[in-house]
Amino acid sequence: MKTKAGTGYRNRISKNYGDYTDIHIHIIPGVDDGSENLDMSMEMLRHAYAEGIRRMIVTPHNKPMRRNAGREKLQEMISMLQAQMRRERFEIELYPGNELYYRAELAQCLEQGKAVTMADSSYVLIEFQPGDRWEYIRDGVNAMLMAGYRPILAHAERYQELGRDLDRVARLREMGCYIQVNASDIMGRWGMGIKHCTRQLLKRRLVDFVATDAHNISDRAPDMAACAAYISRKYGEAYLHKLLTENPAKVINDEYL
User: Crossing angle, helix 225-235 and helix 192-203, to 10 degrees?
Assistant: First the structure.
């Protein structure tokens, strides 16, 4: 498809550019610590398109004691961004979601419509504090499973108690939890320790999704092409396809991985 974005931005795409889905991104303007306004959101979308991203599950933070954007507001913002992309003649499919800060009442919040699942599926993207104890993370994951959800652990490489013992990540997956890591962490943007942990998770095939977790267009931009090229070269095209295309499609379609 020849589009304004397709011609103007494709020159920046690496030869490994593909049909990727980003399941973790803070691109909805003015609702959390991500995009500040419509202009920034559009710049992020243009950048993501140039990186080969064609679908996104947008995941603004949902935290206790905050005025979180509800489903109606989220859908309104998605429609606004989609309309602006059509005017600029490029397209990234957008689906609603949340990055859910885990708390005991989270399942209840979901049932009451105060929080949003991933693309209206049974999948939920959950996060913990980096220093939370292993037992708390394990029990939180189990609580979501018992409530009938399929939890995806956001940026698993950043939890200290998991980084110290990657067998714990394997145990979470055996329980039924899925593992998401950040593309920027694979590429070492946030330090050698996190980079080593993330690459070990990939080496052990303990990762189910790679996402940008982008918040802006500067230090936390939606970069994917270089990471995709690295994964393809190091771990193979089949694993890259599973992480960035096949598994995200199953989330959107509410299918088991």
Answer: 50
Q: What is the dihedral of CA 213, 118, 75, 249, to 10 degrees?
A: 90
| 138 Rama sector, left if φ>0, alpha if ψ -120 to 50, beta otherwise | alpha
* Residue 27 CB contacts under 8 Å (≥ 6 apart), including other chains: 34, 35, 41, 44, 45, 56, 58, 81, 214, 222
- How many other CB atoms sit within 10 Å of the CB of residue 230? 17
The tens digit of pLDDT for each residue in 126-160 reads: 999 999 999 999 999 999 999 999 999 999 999 99
pTM: 0.93
Pull the structure tokens for residue 257: 């991985």
Q: How many helices, marked H, and strands, marked E, lie in the chain?
A: 12, 9
The CA radius of gyration of the chain, in Å to the nearest whole number, is 17
